[in-house]
Amino acid sequence: MQPHPIGDGHYQTEHPLTEMLNLHRFVFCSGCLIGTVITSLATCLTQENLTARDYAIVSGIGCTGRSSGCFKAPAFHTTHGRAIPFATGLKLARPRIKVFVLSGDGDLSAIGGNHLIHAARRNVDISVICVNNSVYGMTGGQAAPTTQLGDITSTTPYGNVEPPFNLVDLAAASGATYVARWPGYDTLRLQKSLRKAMNRAGFSFIEVIVPCFTQYGRRNRKEGTIEMMERLREIVDLRVGCPPHDAVLDLNSGPVVCGEFVETDGVGFVENLQRLRERLKEG
Amino acid sequence: MKNNSITVEKPRAVPAPVLSTGNHACAEGALAAGCRFFGGYPITPSSEVAELMSKRLPLVEGTFVQMEDEIASIVACLGASFAGVKAMTATSGPGLSLMAESIGLAVMLEVPLVIVTVMRGGPSTGQPTNASQSDVYQVRYASHGDYELIVLAPGSVQEMYEMTIRAFNLSERYRTPVIVAADGTLGQMMEPLSLKPAVELVQRKQPQVSPQDYKPFQVLDDDLVPAMAVAGTDYDFYATGLTHDEMGNPRMDPESAEKLIKRLCAKIRRARSHINDWETYCLEDAKLVVLAYGINARGVREAAEQLRAEGHKIGMIRLKSLWPFPDDLIDQLGHQVQKVVVSELNNGMLIREVERFRHRFSVAGITVPTPVPLQPSRIYQRLREEI
Amino acid sequence: MFPSNRRPILAPPQIKKYYRITVDSEQCDGCSLCTAFCPLDVLEIGAATNRRMLHYAVAANPLNCLGCDQCERICPTAAIFVTEAASEGEALA
């Protein structure tokens, strides 16, 4: 809610996020919730009074990969799967800034899988927002490591025979100290989670379920964005205190367990390195 | 031309040369050049570079991270460079193959970055503990796409130190990745190293306009180098690997591609006279010139000296930078020289660049894909045949 | 026991808050997420089209708006936002 405008015909004509976002770079399909994830993050950044000098956004390749350019900040559109090591380098070289990785499930868990587990292991102080649409959307709808069993994609025309990742479990097992999953339409909980992630040390992993109606829905259930969201809402199971290995994600028959799964205090990698430097100074 | 050059005094003057390996000399050079971030992955025969950096960087408030693979290493260095910190990684042939795509990203984003490759035998696993010069084309053309790259070729431990510093300066000056192509012998052998008390350092071009007016890839100078804003300042910018315009907007039209690629290539090609470096021996009256680089140049020099002593009009060029290839230098030889012999530790790579001038002089090769530097006597024998 | 004859002097104040819904017609692409998320049928996809020939969202019943901000939060293109209005006139302007 914005404060009351001036009156006498002087109304606020610009969207409150105009200073935070490059609105001409929203290139997503009409109704795709990637845009919503972007605006949610932008809202949190605005509420925390962060400007271009305080943060950076790094993305990989894919639909979500185009999201970094939507921010009026140092924004990096790197190569496929390499957003996390790029963010690691940024953060370690300039620990003061908050570094966000905004990328897709394929980018982060397939080609980028190795970097994901190691950054989680090191507890690198970055916030990774994984937009999970269980498919490679931008390139035409190929299967991803998160595609459900039996789903039709452009590279699984007879139905997918590979079991999918449970990304929450993967991140948690690798050592992430904050792991959460939210449906893409639940903007309030997502924003609360983002605020928590950006203000804490250590590796934060937030998985956001964003249905892809253009590639995935079209091949499997022939639905549009509203229908896919209604279906998602039916099967979402919000839980408190659920352990990561119980974070079931079954987009077809449910449930899609959402909530915060891991929230522990660990020493962030930045602090780890700083402690090493200090120890050397004394010794 | 806005060139930010400063001279840095080392805190303590080193009185006498120290005995150092090539790898350690390279790390010393990086530290002297102001490198404060190293993202690396161990690979024989370059691991010692990482090892020395891991010891020294935390002592100078720098950051050393051993990443999970070579790809993560170079990409982390890209990130660090965009945070305003000079960054370096060190690897060998197999690792550079993995880094190929990221080199292209570094070129496209115009990131200052130094990559040291200590060449070893290949292809594939090859002979990790030996030397080689068979990555000559790999260092130039590792990535896909149309681009130019700066590659330096040290020939001694002292040059490992000095050329690493030069690599940093060139990378900052031209906002480009620079590769230092050493080899396993050079990396492992020990020679006296004189650390310099004062080093001239080049810093990247800073934006001269306000954040509102800043365009990340706009060139305002003849050198075609855009000013570089980094994260953590008031500047916002979009750095994308997609073909882009000067604002950083992704552009899929043909004109944008042509314009961008031509500028990126011209940026390096225009500076050839500044980048290219070589050393000559008895070139003035030479009728036959031997071209060599790296560790192999030592044996060639000895053979050339012996032939000179016998009265043959032989000269030698030792290349200290491999790419951009010094076309002008080789072309000049056409005025006086009858034959150019290229000697390298591979099955014939840089010789192909020289063969482009076959219409000016005849070209022969002493090219052996052997993992140890050629014996001077062997080179002497072959050169005698060529005279 | 004894019925009280205390009565309020004035009727309790009825505070009606007004909200002004602004849609950037060029930024909106008519995805209709806002209309689906609005709990009170304030919004609809109108008949008019923008420069991209897309129908965009309009506030058909702005006086029903209770300022929940759902539309503003869900919009994937940051095309719609809600502000407090001082009066009914401002809400409709």
What does this structure look like?
The complex is a heterotrimer of chains A (283), B (387) and C (93). Helix content of chain A is 34%, strand content 16%. The longest helix of chain A is centred in the first third of the chain and has 14 residues, at 34-47. Chain A contains 9 helices and 8 strands. In chain A, α1 crosses α6. Chain A is of the alpha/beta class and 283 residues long. Chain B has 387 residues and is of the alpha/beta class. Chain B has 2 domains: 4-203, Thiamin diphosphate (ThDP)-binding fold, Pyr/PP domains (Rossmann fold); 278-386, 3-Layer(aba) Sandwich (Rossmann fold). Chain B has 14 helices and 17 strands. In chain B, α11 packs across α14 (376-386). Chain B is globular and about 70 Å long. Chain C is an alpha+beta fold and 93 residues long. Chain C has a single domain, classed as Alpha-Beta Plaits. Chain C contains 3 helices and 4 strands, in the order βαββαβα. The radius of gyration of chain C is 19 Å and the shape is elongated. The model of chain C has no long low-confidence stretch (mean pLDDT 91). Chains in contact: A-B, A-C. The interface between A and B is large, with 38 and 48 residues. β2 of chain A pairs parallel with β11 of chain B.
